[in-house]
Specification:
heterotrimer; A mainly alpha; B mainly alpha; C alpha/beta; A: mainly alpha; MetI-like fold; 13 helices; C: alpha/beta; Rossmann fold; six-stranded mixed sheet; four-stranded antiparallel sheet; 8 helices; about 35% helix; about 20% strand; globular
């Protein structure tokens, strides 16, 4: 009987999309956004190309950048029509992928153990907390010394940054689990391992996913830094070499591309999170959010 | 994107270990199970054991080239802890070393203060004026995914001095975090407080001054703590890039990040580790200072 | 002591024998339970009322095995649950707790929650556990909620589901810590009905903490009024209204007399506690 009622009230998937888009158009948000973007881009255009304000004279202008980005034969060799553009993107994405995957595979279990087992935590957390404040870039020379080649150090640095963020957030997730849930599980006869599997891990999952979103952001941060310092190919490398080779419009192209790709990966992580935690989405829906 | 505040529930959940109070024995036998009476608590003992193990493994690995005939892949290349210790002893007397501390610390201070000084009003404006928010927030969100370091070349082109360009990048790093946190805090203020104030006849200004401003202080505290960590990351990175990695002049530089890079280039590897640990210490100290400052802003949260 | 009106000899007799409990957080020794003795017969519903913060929950947790006691002993059918000399407490499926704020696992569906006990104890296969869970939910009138998540379910239904879950292991004792506190009075009366019906089916011993005196007299065989902290029984009222009960009880004169008597005792104690400056628990 509940299911029947539910089916009538449920919108089709397409209907939901249509509703959301229509809502979006109705809201003043859209117009504010347009005004904001117009101000930003317009200001940039004016300051550099029209008014030629003193500080802005050296900078690449809006039209220059757009022209370069879209042209088939770019002056500095990088546009959406050149294959090398995509090799750089692919290089950065590949590194992020490996590092993020490894960091999650190592960071989540370590975080779960540190949060759930006093013994493990008392042995491991002190060392963890001593290493964590060391900024990732400070590891660069050491990474270069330790690992052969130019790829491995970059991936290692990205992995490190991501690992700390993931592990820390996982610990937070474990600690925020309501203790009565653990007690209830024990009352019902669950062993220590079963409590871990049925209560701790699912309970920490929302925090883990928030941690993963933070982690991907941190990963991009470190990747760009590492690529700028040592590496070949990649968006950070593009930005750095464009600067040294005085190819200024390409710098901006690199920055914008970074922004777009970074947002896309964050969104991907968030989507996966929502998928996995259907129960949470439904719970939030009940609260009217 | 980053979560703005930690969950208030700080009770530690330990699987399997249930809180027990040992029964009082009427006579003699006292097992020191209360942490307060033991000389060195179990947690401290275990931490000590961990560090000793790490140091021993590190020392052994770094001082031999091979182990039972097999070349050690990673540890073998590390500078040994003994060498690091000696190098550090030497550096403590070196004025240049402490100058690096001051330089880096100064940049952190300037960038961080600027981030707070600009970020808080910006966020509050967005929180209280919906029109401003509608215009400014999308632009903010558009620029936020671009890592601060990607701004380095643009910053160098734009700003007249190298120092200012580094400070700008540092400012950006903390700025985003602080704005996001303050905004989150402002929107999380229970609407019933605002309704209560209005029903008591408070003017808009008073509502702002007495409700919203104190209401965002906890989130600001969290934002500041996270922000100071990011600031150190960016400082080191910027120092390395503009002083070492990039192709710019060696005129500006200095600071602990530059120190690490030049130690590497100069081949004195133990100094690299000294630099790393120094920055770690500096970072922890500044986090502690910020945390102290933050809790003085929010005295009501320190209730037992 | 009036023996409850049930025929079969059941397990579940609890004896709290001169129990003392001292909490020692950060060295501040707080006496919470002071030489408390109480007998609960097998299959009896024992309601515990008292000022907030007096230590009732501590007693409940001791029976549940979440922590040990400082002195004295708690026995279940002659078996010592916790006493001095036991450093590790003993949590078991024979004593199940229903918590005040609800402890259904939000990430499992209601059915998975109910089936949790047998599955985790490996006494049944998954299919068998689900079947039994469905059956028990149907008995309690909860069909249709199996595949919803607790986050989508209303609090009254959630509470009933929790009690069904607690009973899946056929426990000897049910420990309830103000289970209906957060519900409105209409839902509460539904809960009382459900509980009485459930009790009519299987007479499990209950240790039930509440502040609602009407609820106490309606449900319990006896009502124990505790003193303020440190707690011990101040007065024990026998409720001589026979089980099985129905809501018609609420109108009888005997019921109202009992409620008034209990209220007077509780008020006395509350006033005393207030004058002693007890902080709300």
């Amino acid at each position: 009987m509940n299911e029947e009622r539910g089916r009538d009230a449920r919108m089709t998937h397409l209907g939901r999309i249509h509703f959301r888009v229509a809502e979006w158009f109705r809201h003043p948000h859209l117009y504010g956004m347009l005004v904001g973007y117009a101000l930003l881009l317009g200001g940039w255009y004016l300051a550099v190309e029209v008014l030629r304000l003193p500080r802005f004279r050296e900078m690449p202008g809006l039209t220059q950048v757009v022209h370069e980005w879209l042209s088939r034969d770019p002056t500095f060799g990088l546009s959406i029509h050149t294959p090398i553009y995509y090799s750089h993107i692919a290089a950065s994405l590949r590194r992020i992928g490996i590092a993020f995957f490894l960091a999650t595979a190592v960071g989540v279990p370590v975080g779960l153990l540190m949060g759930g087992s006093t013994t493990f935590r008392e042995y491991v957390f002190p060392v963890f907390e001593v290493l964590r404040p060391i900024p990732i870039l400070a590891w660069v020379p050491l990474a270069i010394i330790l690992f052969p080649g130019s790829e491995t150090p970059v991936v290692f640095l990205t992995f490190l940054a991501s690992f700390f963020a993931t592990a820390l957030n996982t610990v937070l997730g474990v600690r925020s689990i309501d203790e009565t849930l653990v007690l209830a599980a024990r009352c019902l006869g669950a062993s220590r391992w079963q409590v871990f599997r049925h209560v701790i891990v699912p309970g920490a999952l929302p925090f883990i996913f928030t941690g993963l979103q933070i982690s991907i952001g941190v990963a991009w941060f470190s990747l760009v830094a590492a690529e700028m310092v040592s590496g070949q190919f990649g968006l950070g490398y593009v930005i750095n070499t464009s600067y040294t080779m005085v190819q200024y419009p390409t710098i901006v192209i690199g920055m914008i591309t970074l922004g777009v790709v970074g947002t896309a990966t964050s969104a991907a992580v968030r989507l996966v999170g929502h998928r996995w935690m259907a129960w949470r989405a439904k719970e939030l829906a009940m609260e009217g959010r | 994107m980053p979560s703005s505040s930690a969950n208030g529930k700080a009770r530690l959940v330990t699987v399997g270990a249930i809180a027990t109070v040992p029964p009082d024995r009427p006579s003699g036998s006292r097992r020191a199970r209360r942490p307060s009476t033991a000389l060195v608590s179990r947690a401290h003992r275990r931490a000590l054991v961990s560090f000793c193990v790490v140091l021993v493994v590190w020392q052994l690995g770094a001082s031999r080239a091979t182990w039972l005939g097999h070349p050690l892949p990673w540890i073998g290349h590390l500078p040994a802890p003994s060498a690091v210790w000696i190098a550090w002893g030497r550096l403590i007397g070196d004025r240049g070393y402490w100058q690096s501390w001051v330089l880096s610390g100064g940049r952190v201070l300037i960038g961080f203060t600027a981030a707070v000084g600009v970020g808080v009003p910006f966020a509050l404006l967005m929180a209280t004026l919906p029109v401003f928010r509608g215009i400014a927030f999308p632009v903010f969100e558009l620029l936020r995914p671009i890592p601060p370091l990607a701004w380095v070349p643009a910053s160098i082109i734009f700003w007249p001095t190298q120092e200012l360009s580094i400070d700008f990048v540092i400012f950006l790093g903390a700025f985003y975090t602080i704005v996001i946190n303050v905004l989150g805090g402002a929107s999380a203020i229970d609407v019933r407080f605002l309704q209560a104030a209005r029903s008591m006849g408070a003017s808009r200004w008073n509502v702002f001054r007495r409700l919203i401003l104190p209401g965002v202080l906890p989130s600001l505290a969290v934002g500041m703590e996270v922000g100071i960590g990011i600031t150190w990351e960016v400082v080191v990175a910027a120092e390395m890039i503009s002083g070492g990695g990039g192709g710019s002049s060696a005129a500006s530089g200095g600071g602990l990040g530059f120190f690490i890079w030049s130690s590497y280039v100069g081949g004195s590897y133990p100094q690299i580790v000294v630099g790393m640990l120094s920055i770690g210490i500096a970072g922890t100290l500044s986090s502690a200072v910020v945390r102290r400052l933050a809790s003085s802003l929010t005295p009501w949260l320190a209730v037992r | 002591m009036i023996a409850p009106a049930i025929s079969s000899a059941r397990r579940g007799a609890i004896r709290i024998d001169d129990v003392v409990k001292v909490y020692d957080p950060d060295g501040a020794r707080v006496l919470v339970v002071d030489h408390c003795s109480l007998d609960i017969a097998a299959g009896e519903i024992c309601i515990v009322v008292g000022p907030s913060g007096c230590g009732k929950t501590t007693l409940l947790k001791s029976i549940a095995g979440f922590h040990s006691v400082t002195a004295g002993a708690i026995t279940l059918d002659g078996r010592v649950l916790c006493g001095p000399g036991q450093s590790q407490a003993d949590v078991g499926p024979d004593r199940v707790v229903v918590f005040q704020n609800g402890a259904l696992f939000p990430w499992k569906t209601n059915l998975e929650n109910v089936a949790f006990g047998p599955m985790v104890q490996k006494t049944m296969t998954r299919a068998e556990a689900y079947d039994k869970a469905r059956q028990r939910m149907a008995d309690a009138g909860l069909t249709g909620y199996e595949h919803a998540y607790p986050g989508q379910t209303s609090s009254g239904v959630k509470r009933r589901i929790e009690i069904v879950r607690a009973l899946m292991n056929d426990p000897t004792v049910l420990l309830l810590d103000e289970p209906y506190r957060a519900l409105d009075s209409l839902t509460k009366s539904v809960m009382h009905d459900a509980l009485l019906q459930m009790y009519a089916r299987n007479q499990v011993t209950m240790f039930f903490i509440t502040h609602d005196l009407e609820e106490a007299i309606l449900l319990g065989h006896k009502v124990v009024v505790m003193t303020s902290r440190p707690c011990r029984p101040k007065k024990i009222l026998e409720v001589d209204i026979p089980h099985p009960r129905d809501p018609g009880v609420l109108g009888t004169r005997r019921y109202r007399e009992l409620v008034r008597e209990t209220a007077e005792t509780v008020q006395q104690e509350a006033r005393r506690a207030f004058e002693l400056g007890e902080r709300e628990g």
